[in-house]
Specification:
Elements lengths: L1 H32 L1
Length: about 35
């Protein structure tokens, strides 16, 4: 059971960090355009 929960947490962390990275890239892109 523990391993399944750890895997789900790991996936959630990956998704969140990808979203954060995506937001940062978008912000940098906007700054370049301005």
């Amino acid at each position: 059971m523990g391993k399944i929960i750890e895997a789900k947490i790991g996936d959630a962390v990956k998704i969140l960090s990808l979203q954060k990275l995506h937001i940062e890239v978008k912000q940098n892109f906007m700054e370049i355009l301005i």
